[in-house]
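User: I'm putting together notes for a lab meeting next week and I want to include a structural view of one of the chains we've been expressing. I don't have a solved structure, so I'd like a prediction I can at least talk through. The sequence is below, exactly as it appears in our construct file.
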Amino acid sequence: MPDIRNCKRCGKIFNYIGGAMLCPQCRQDDEVDFKKVKEYLYEYPGAALTQVSTELGVSIEKIKRFLKDGRLEITNKDGNMLLACENCGKAITTGRFCAECERELAMGLRSAASQMKSELDILAGRSSGQLGKSLSGKAVGIRYLNKEYKKEKEK
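Assistant: Thanks for the context. Below is the predicted structure for the 155-residue chain, given as structure tokens.
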């Protein structure tokens, strides 16, 4: 079933398929702006954020989003006040998290996935290898319940 939503930027209705909640036109506009920024930075490596924004007419917020998405990187390693890790607050050059926090998050996700897999394996084992057995290991008997049997049992 299609997931219909409104674009966060222009408000148009579109079929949402994942990622940013932007319609195809706004996504395309972002890609055009990103290509402009990328080409500008090839020509002027290390240009300041405000310089790129002013020269190209691309908003500072959009360039910051490109940085957070990991599509651009800050070249000035010392004194970066523009981008901080969303977990610990340490200054970073690209993305949303510092390397240490990324490692911790990845380990946590791997641990959760491993735990879920083992729980699913247990359930799958019970449903296939233990089919027809109770938790104690004894065979489980079944029978067809018809309405007459149910009425007799209730008396």
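A couple of points you could mention at the meeting. Residues 98-130 form one domain. Strands lie at 4-6, 13-15.

User: Perfect, that's what I needed.
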